[in-house]
Prior knowledge:
Order of helices and strands: HEHHHEHEHEHEHEEEHHEEHEEEH
Oligomer: single chain
Number of strands: 13
Largest sheet: 7 strands, mixed
Structural class: alpha/beta
Helix content: 25-40%
Radius of gyration: 23 Å
Strand order of the largest sheet: 2-8-7-6-5-3-4
Number of helices: 12
Amino acid sequence: MSEPLDPAGEAAAVDLAGEARRLDAADALAPLRERFVLDDVTYLDGNSLGALPAHVPARVDDVVRRQWGELRIRSWEESGWWTAPERIGDRIAPLVGAAAGQIVVGDSTSVNVFKALVAAVRMAREDVGDGGEGGGAVRDEILVDATTFPTDGYIAESAARMTGCALRPVTPAEVPGALGDRTAAVLLNHVDYRTGRLHDLPALTRAVHACGAYAVWDLCHSAGALPVGLDEHGVDLAVGCTYKYLNGGPGSPAYLYVRRDLQPRFDSPLPGWNSHAEPFGMRSAYAPASGAVRGRVGTPDILSLLALEAALDVWDADGVSVAAVRAKSLALTDFFLRCVGAYVPAGRVESVTPAAHDERGSQVALRCDDAGEVMKRLVESGVVGDFRAPDVLRFGFTPLYVGFADVERAARVLARTLG
Length: 419
């Protein structure tokens, strides 16, 4: 069994525990916790898989038993199955700062990254051919975030091969200096999955546009946790998953954003029958549908889609806004860093998450030499975060259901685990 904190640490624990209770009592979002299925475990891994909203099982049961079991094929029309990808896209839109009609839900993040990146290259080359901003330059280069989540890098490498582009991995900070008249598209993560660093989406998007290229953003670690502003900042294309801060469930479908003015030019590399202008015309020649529907491919995954739709109901509660969620996220991560500083022995961990609010997502990453074993012991003690090789402990803070007492307890258990 781990040793308790020393007397000074115990005094700090009493003080911080009391502060946590006061912060929870004043938290306007605290009642939302009751909308989720939670237990005594301190769950700080919503940046990997969000908790289950309590009303989702009954909704899924209705989908299975009534819509599928009784209505069967009629549910494509009578239960709204056919329009679910666009309808649910419109539910996600305000959470990422987009107007309706620009997001379609379906497929995985990886598949949507492929669609978006290839389409971006095609549009960049079309600009050159039309005498657009490219100024006659050959657009044959893709920039990709060198620190990206691996799948984005794999997809970018494949997209580059398929489009005859060179792939240049650069850090987000290096992007402005790496852009040139040969750049076709830039694929970036809004929040770094390892460190929780928030990248400057507005400034980087402006820089990409200034050189005549297209910006593709991965929002997996920001949607539902902080303001994104896709429309406001003129983002061209964006993708994201729904099983993290949107709590859509394991493997819930991802989404694709195509800015409205680009939709007539969006040339998907996966032109499935679901994106055809006449999907039931069964024509041999492909003709793309108009609008965001162009991002569809095959038959939608209805069970996962409708579980996600039910999960999004949490955002309809009074007083829930992305701004309020962001404010609480920053307060939670600030408090966690304070508690870690007060409880954990000096030099035992190092935060690799930026301290500045405008550079921080909704997680805290701590570097620790034996991080894998430490996280295993934390989980055994009822504090669930996750480990990223080689030496990072990640703690994600979902403001809809994480409270300040959770934060204080996690830091206290971490201190005792580290001894």
